[in-house]
Amino acid sequence: MTGQRTNARSPTTGKPRAARLSVDRVLEAAFARVRSTGLPSLTMRQLADDLGTGPMTLYRHVSGRDDLLRRMLDRTVAEMDLPPVSLDPREELTGLVTAVHARFRRDPWVVTLVASEGLSSPDILPVVERMLNALKNAGCNHDEMAAAYALIWHYTYGEAIDSHRDGELDRVAAGMGDIDVGEYPTLAEMLCRRRGTQRRHLFEGNLQRLLDSVL
Amino acid sequence: MTGQRTNARSPTTGKPRAARLSVDRVLEAAFARVRSTGLPSLTMRQLADDLGTGPMTLYRHVSGRDDLLRRMLDRTVAEMDLPPVSLDPREELTGLVTAVHARFRRDPWVVTLVASEGLSSPDILPVVERMLNALKNAGCNHDEMAAAYALIWHYTYGEAIDSHRDGELDRVAAGMGDIDVGEYPTLAEMLCRRRGTQRRHLFEGNLQRLLDSVL
DNA sequence: ACCTGAACACCGTTCAAGT
DNA sequence: ACCTGAACACCGTTCAAGT
């Protein structure tokens, strides 16, 4: 015997074999799977196949499917690209909300996870703290802070959920086929004119409008 | 033989037996199940059990699980208790959003359905049309209408999703155990003072604030 | 003709048997 | 000791056999 078989190298090729399973490797594969074929396709068995192992091997690194999803959510939140702290409340809030929004846009499937499981990741706390501080610095009292926080957060939330589809208006139209112009004239007119409006632009504008009313 | 066995009456008791299955009966049972034990417990097999029949019998009335869920969503939207049309834009918008919000609150599980499947129910169209008309009457041009519509809708959406839990702040705290006061002083202070704030009150206030900025 | 049981191809997870 | 295959109790749905 020339080498230990217990790790790292294939006895036949000598090439560094796919590293032995670890939580990170499992998560990596899970992200790849869900990104390419969606959340429902992320099953323990499929994931095991992707990693070239049996389903039970995964349970060495993850306590079950729920644990896997929680870890994916945690990692997603931790990966948020937060801007440096700004003392200007508007700049601070814009930066934070934009970062959250951008993260959700990169992995839209997370939002449905958040919607059904909640977003109680430890790494969201710094974001919350910074938002509250910005509101405080803007002169909000506690009631105002609570209200403003809820308003901003819920808007971001709703926008994110809606944005992993094509937007409410378009989708309503698509799902319905052609709208009855006689019955819904204003809606039909909107759908006709609004083509090409950028979602992103809409989000940025509305966020500023929200901040106008809050600050 | 004294009576037909094909329908309506039990041959043994003569009492009107549970009516033969129909889409309505299936939906009724599905709502009951999901209301009492949650969305994941709504399986074709469980539903069949609830109705005292075999799983396959359901497929006579519903083309599959997706179809069942879509019908439940449609019915939920159709059951919205819309207020009479008002010519005052603020009153009209307040009434509509409040109605949507109230419907979601009565069956919070629908929101996760909406989040993953979208809300493309035909019965949402009148609501959309009325919202757009109210914005038009308030003097919005098309771009403003699109923006204001998205803002209002996304806020309602996000609020609804969040509200079937205990609210973001509380939940974050609950999920985390005790917050590190040193690390997150503003958050800790908020959590301490905010106890007892009514969600409903917060929603109404924020909606008015939103309308202030939109109208 | 209408209805539905058995069967198929999945799923998450337990548990005991492998090395 | 560490790892994992077989088995269990589910799931939605097909399909052919019942009445």
TrEMBL record, chains A, B:
<dbReference type="GO" id="GO:0045892">
    <property type="term" value="P:negative regulation of DNA-templated transcription"/>
</dbReference>
<dbReference type="InterPro" id="IPR004111">
    <property type="entry name" value="Repressor_TetR_C"/>
</dbReference>
<protein>
    <submittedName>
        <fullName>TetR family transcriptional regulator</fullName>
    </submittedName>
</protein>
<feature type="DNA-binding region" description="H-T-H motif">
    <location>
        <begin position="43"/>
        <end position="62"/>
    </location>
</feature>
<keyword id="KW-0805">Transcription regulation</keyword>
<dbReference type="Pfam" id="PF02909">
    <property type="entry name" value="TetR_C_1"/>
</dbReference>
<dbReference type="InterPro" id="IPR001647">
    <property type="entry name" value="HTH_TetR"/>
</dbReference>
<dbReference type="GO" id="GO:0003700">
    <property type="term" value="F:DNA-binding transcription factor activity"/>
</dbReference>
<keyword id="KW-0238">DNA-binding</keyword>
<dbReference type="InterPro" id="IPR050109">
    <property type="entry name" value="HTH-type_TetR-like_transc_reg"/>
</dbReference>
<dbReference type="InterPro" id="IPR036271">
    <property type="entry name" value="Tet_transcr_reg_TetR-rel_C_sf"/>
</dbReference>
<dbReference type="GO" id="GO:0000976">
    <property type="term" value="F:transcription cis-regulatory region binding"/>
</dbReference>
<dbReference type="InterPro" id="IPR009057">
    <property type="entry name" value="Homeodomain-like_sf"/>
</dbReference>
<keyword id="KW-0804">Transcription</keyword>
<feature type="domain" description="HTH tetR-type">
    <location>
        <begin position="20"/>
        <end position="80"/>
    </location>
</feature>
